[in-house]
Amino acid sequence: MAFKLEREKTKTTPYILIDEEKGFMRFEGESYLEDVVGFFMEVNEWLEKYLATDCAELTFECAMEYFNSSTTKQLYNIMRAMDANASDKKMVINWIVADEDDDMLIECGEDYQEDMENLEFNIIIGNK
Amino acid sequence: MVLNMREYTDRFKDLNISIYYNGPLWDDGIKGIAEMVKTSLASDDLSSGASKAIFSVFVEQTTNMIMHSAEKELYTQLDTEEVSTGMLALGHKGNTYFIQTGNAIKSSSAEYVKQKIDHLNTLDKKELRQYQKEKMRSENDNPDSKGAGLGLIEIARRVTAPIEYTLEPIDENMTYFTLYVEIAQEVKE
Questions:
Q1: In 10 A of CB B77, how many CB atoms?
Q2: Which residues contact B186 (CB under 8 A, 6 or more apart)?
């Protein structure tokens, strides 16, 4: 059975969707004042197992609006894990910024993008 | 004894402080204050970038206090039992917002905090962005910290004047740490 996870967002934790069958993951919302390491644990455990399978393909849509600095690190770790597998597997990250004036989010996406070596990283501005 | 609370209120008004809190700090407990800060910023005439920057500084500094305050209270009903204490004040004078916090830290960490802030104050915005990126790649260099070590850098990136602070010894084990930061509001276009 392909793994599926859907977690509703709260004021301080993001909406998370993982659909292994479609090779798709999406985050939305905000992340702060939480034990973020604990919160992303399930995602990281699944990701590690999934990326180790031969046929893994993953599109990660990150449409978060605000997150704290510890979340920045968690997102980075997820992206690096994808990037490490991107030489022989299709790995795509879509960094979605709804507000075209949101320099904080745009710069953050650019910084992630610069650190990725193999995967396709798209910054999509002004589109929900 | 009944305190004359009006004197305190007037004093905060004189200091342009609109939100003030002093007491226990833990993640779930502070969410209500975060919501209050967010709502209050949203009702001010701020660009979305400015209010996000101010909120980000508030979140990072509150998290720093939760993680590093050396003064604890016992709350047996919480999983962690020991809860950090500290104070925070937020306000604005004209178009300049400020956040001020105070909490005790271990005296053994005082030198680390001093060096870290002094260093951040020497960097310009571009250098801070680069520094944050480097730190994101590496593990936290502060052995006392459970966090990602990015909070103060994030604060330094968002403020519009150098970070001000004082470190005042309480006794041989504890030092009182006061932090003051300003974010000048961007003019709405």
A1: 5
A2: B46, B47, B49, B50
Max Cα–Cα distance, chain A, nearest Å: 42
The pLDDT tens digits for B100-134 are 999 999 999 999 999 999 999 999 999 999 999 99
B68 C-beta neighbours (distance < 10 Å), count: 22
Residues A24/A33, Cβ–Cβ less than 8 Å: no
> Which residue numbers in chain B have pLDDT < 50?
none
Distance CA A20, CA B112 (A): 44
A3 φ, ψ to 5°?
Answer: -70, 140
Shortest distance between the Cα of A38 and any Cα of chain B, in A, equals: 12
Q: How far is A111 from chain B (nearest CA, A)?
A: 7
Q: Are A31 and A67 in contact (CB under 8 A)?
A: yes
Model-wide pTM > 0.80: yes
Residue B56 φ/ψ region, left for φ over 0, alpha for ψ in the -120 to 50 degree band, beta for the rest: alpha
Please name the member of A12, A68, A73 whose beta carbon is closest to the beta carbon of B136.
A73
Residue B63 has which token pair?
């998290």
Q: Chain A interface, mutation test: which of B25, B51, B52, most A Cβ atoms within 10 Å?
A: B52
Query: In the prediction, which pLDDT does A20 show?
Result: 96
